[in-house]
Design goal:
Blueprint lengths: L14 H20 L7 H15 L3 E10 L22 E10 L2 E10 L4 H24 L3 H15 L2 E2 L6 E2 L25 E8 L6 E7 L4
Antiparallel strand pairs: 1-2, 2-3, 4-6, 5-6, 6-7
Helix pairs in contact: 1-2, 3-4
Length: about 220
Amino acid sequence: MTSTPQEAVGSRFDPKLMQHARERTWQALRGIRERMQPGISEEEARIAAAEVFRELGMERLWHPVIIRIGANTTLTYREPSDASVRLGENDIYFIDLGLVFAGHEGDAGDTFVTGHSPQKQACADAARELFQLVAGAWRSRGLTGEALYAFAEQQAEAMGWRLNHEIKGHRVSDFPHSVHKAGDLGELGERPSGGLWILEIQITHPTEAYGAFYEDLLTID
């Protein structure tokens, strides 16, 4: 694959199995979305998620299931949620999954809106759009990981949103990628290779207490 230490993989690594894990993880995310109804709590959503994982034959989690609702969507990965929050009729939430299938790591995240809330829907759409802009810049301009997140910040501001600077992407590979200590994508001083890095985008409204999240594997096509 590469001689770069940050992009080291294990002996079992297979790009086709990476794609398999990616597709299965997105399938799991869609299954959880189908179970997200107004009134559900984040803990109840995680219990429902476990049922989805069993149906899909997931081997294990490689990071905890993150489901954020309402004001909790502004929080970073390590910040604890307000457990009393429940999904409202016109609300926003996101799902962040790190799952292992066939010994390879999938990582997917997306944001959805219940009912009718044009501003929150605009936020969810903006996270997806920003992801596509940044991924497109990686493909066409060969930007380093550091430059990708500098570009993401500029674009987020131009779109009227705030980029969460603590969310900077990361490696994936055959499980566990953590043995390679690859660091964050946003701190990588060279162009990241395809099929190895997760681009994470988290934005928040400049004045209101909600945000959106989107992540996926950086791929050439």
